[in-house]
From TrEMBL:
InterPro entries from the UniProt entry: Bact_solute-bd_prot1
Superkingdom of this protein's organism: Bacteria
Keyword line: Signal
Protein name: Aldotetraouronic acid ABC transporter substrate-binding protein /aldotetraouronic acid ABC transporter substrate-binding protein
PANTHER family for this protein: ARABINOSE-BINDING PROTEIN-RELATED, DIACETYLCHITOBIOSE BINDING PROTEIN DASA
Biological source species: Cohnella lupini
Region (Disordered): 28-49
CDD domains assigned to the protein according to its UniProt record, in alphabetical order: PBP2_AlgQ_like_1 (cd13580)
Amino acid sequence: MKKRLAKHSLGALALAVAVLSAAGCSAKSNANQTEPSSTSGASGDNSQQEVTVKLGRVVGSDNKFKNGETIEDNVHTRWAKEKFGIDFKVDWSVGTGEAYTTKLRLLMNSNGDLPDVFTLNDPTLENQVVDSGKVMDVTEAFDKYASPRLKELYAKYPEIWNTVSYEGKHYGLPTFNAISSFSVLWIRQDWLDKLGLQVPKTIEDMDKVMDAFVNQDPDGNGKKDTIGLSLSLKKGVSTVKDTFMVSSDFLFGHSAVPTYWTEGADGKLQYGSVQPTMKQGLAKLSEWMKKGYLDKDAGAMDESKAAESFVQGKSGMVFGPTWMPTFPFNADMKFDYIPVPVPAGIDGQIGFGSEPQSSVRFYFNKDFKHMDVLFQYLDAIMGPGLYDPSSEFANGWAEGYDYVMVDGKPVYDSDKIPGGFVDVKKYTIYGNDIQAPKKELEVMAKLGRGEAPETPYENYFAARPKKWAEAAAVLDTYLDQAAVFDKFTGPPTPTMAEKGELLRKMENEIFLKIIYGQESPDAFDSFVNKWKSSGGDQITKEVNEWYESVNQ
């Protein structure tokens, strides 16, 4: 069995895969090596050889069509045929991402034909796909045919290749996450002003601010009915990996991100939830709960429910992404709130768990011969994700579908587009924008600093809420130093698959008992010992064996 080095995906982002499409190019020969097609280069040429592209697609309720088009014949597929000679053919389609994964699994189990190009974010199935010998090592094709800007992008983030590496070979092409929105501290500026307080920069500062927010009647109604910090603990002490907003990981700083595997002083990976800093952080959360700084029902609240206290004007702070002004914040929030940098954690450092570099991977049928054409296509559709102003998709994916030109400028209002707005990017083989890390943040931060929009992308994003841009400008000042990546990007190890769920349940239960005062912080020490003896030590051993193999 090949040794799989892939990433278990971010829960919130996994939902997005339901709208992703998988596609493939069918070769007429069974030869295993990739051969160049007769093409004229990245710009495309109508005289080039036609390449049939067989697709397995997700066509959900959010896939809209007009002008009698279908997933197989539409404005994007016609563009691809004219530009690159690619003729898309849909062999099968399903309605959801879950059904798509099931379909691929059934094809594997029945020894059926896989699509020639497809996307996955299921590490178990990815293991099976690679072990089957049905997908190709893309190393040579990437070196030969990837455009200079794609090579530069992947060279900048070399660890992303770990997500598709098996025994030193790359059996897929990972796509990037945007890494542009996590996280800032949203705080009531009007409450700070009323109480003569400054923006908190440390946990000690937060203590003082929350005490005033809870005990000095900041809303002026004469009642003790406010809390200091909105927090969701329903999924335990968690990160963006499990809780997409209103999480608590910032409290622990940079040295112990809960549930993440990070390098220790010895260079080995260590599990954040069992590090000494966690005990200090849990003690602080317990103190905050006892003093009424947190909602007493935080342990039962999901993200949306936990955020309500801030939205309704009853909480002074909430930790979350830059895009919160679009959800759950709304126009009814008639008070002054601002985004500020995340305070230094219990270890004295700013830190929080980042979304992974990659959640979705492309895989390619081993018999697919036209990687040159595919990389031309991929480079073209990555233009928007790279925020390339010279991209033919700079204004949008198709005029008359997702934008119209009015007085020489793109307009995106659906009621001004004949037949209404249609999201053409869903017709691509990825089904979404293929992002480049922090590119969106760069654009939004520029706008948040008050600079005038210049490119089509900047003009498009200028329509977003002003507070989103302001939050991006704040995040841009510290993201690189604060974001902590989970260094374990492999599938569940054998012991993790067997005992991981039980260990996580044990972790969540004892952490909540400590936070709610049902156990003292010293119970953390007993938990660590039990975690190690119940499989944690073996998991740590397996994780580090994987890590050593990646870094050889």
